[in-house]
């Protein structure tokens, strides 16, 4: 078939199918986010226009934002569908690097198609081209190499035949999942080739389920049988395997308390008697108390990030770690006994290997006892009192959410409030982007989630800082007709970083507006509601918690019936936080002009003495 490179690429996108979370078949690439420029409008742009009835194209207004929306699609569909984003060369391409970093850190699939400079180099230097004096092959797209799982620059049309199978390998591989980047020189996009029809034959991609090595499985079972106080930690790999039910049955059969990581939140019903709560700094005292006494930890589908392990102080010295993970890279970390396998298959075979073995009933009962204490603490935080707090706002959203709804956040203090304080109302219904903690993901990711999950209400919680960082995709979503609710908590700046700054002995500086340099006696403030309304959104400014509940109900209705974002703005307390009582290692200066900083450094040294050090 005589096609241009761009036409072949688009036709290939259309041929890729996937098994959706509900078992139905759907497109692997449900749509493309695009901002056209001279580097992609004629080649890829014309090819997308030809297929506009089959492949939706959504216009973004910031390349980073639209690529983050593509990431949001991947998370909302549990990695079963892949968002695509294309930009022109130069600044447009570089704006998508941050989104690639988000996808890479969170092991999420993303396909980026940045335009590139001319492969033939005849018109060099072209508009937006940077020139490297000693390497003419280098372009700005080489910046993607650090944040991509797969990178290729297509300099001849026929190279697609070799690279496209590798692209789908990375995008659908549970162990190697992450962003793929195809840099497309603008002249090559327009060049043609006789492509074989087989390249465009429909292919259905189903999640692979590698089974564990029998010897590793037997060793893991031996370790668990020797445990008196085992603990099960569920991560994002359990979500992407759709193995939550299997994990709960495993825990019930063997009487093992269960905790969740950030990526594993909402996998376990909140009131399940074996649920100890979320683990780590942004988790709960209940899970952390169980972790401090556990003698064996079975970590499934998690890379055990520092917020989950409290910088490796949450577990007891001498704990034995068993890691079941589809990625060998993660399974072998921290001296773990590694079992490389799909979460669902691995837990199925491990429970068969364990047979009728059960942990102690008294230890299993501790999970509900400890979680009840944490629930009481959170109930106290949710009680109305003065200026609304993050915990109260989260509680109100939680109370008004149903099993089909979806909640997300990414940065600032809200991840801690959502991870620690949310009570699951549906399985895998939370997205806390805390691998890269990208300010601005909250709005862009919500747009992608709203596209992927049209049946429920998507709610994003964010601070005023994140809103100001990246809000352009509010208009993109409003224009396209995708409704979601954004709850903007205005606490006068970057409050959680102010907390870290002052909590480690420093002076408040350049975070809260009171400590930011200005030439004005009364500096300007943002009217978030007016701004959101000007972007085509419904806006609901409120002053108190009662008003918030009413406004949030209305916002949910607007998002569903008017098909546009609804933004609820509420002033919140700048220093009221949910605290799981865990430690986190940060770089506090050894030498400083403030005694409080040097004292904090001594506290860091004391914390580091408690860190568990593995291989």
UniProtKB/TrEMBL annotation:
SUPFAM superfamilies with a match to the protein in the record: DHS-like NAD/FAD-binding domain (SSF52467), Thiamin diphosphate-binding fold (THDP-binding) (SSF52518)
An example molecular function term from Gene Ontology annotations: 3D-(3,5/4)-trihydroxycyclohexane-1,2-dione hydrolase activity
Keywords, ordered alphabetically: Hydrolase, Thiamine pyrophosphate
Enzyme Commission numbers on file: 3.7.1.22
Domain spans labelled Thiamine pyrophosphate enzyme N-terminal TPP-binding: 39-128
Family, similarity comment: Belongs to the TPP enzyme family.
Name of this chain's protein: 3D-(3,5/4)-trihydroxycyclohexane-1,2-dione acylhydrolase (Decyclizing)
Organism: Saccharothrix hoggarensis
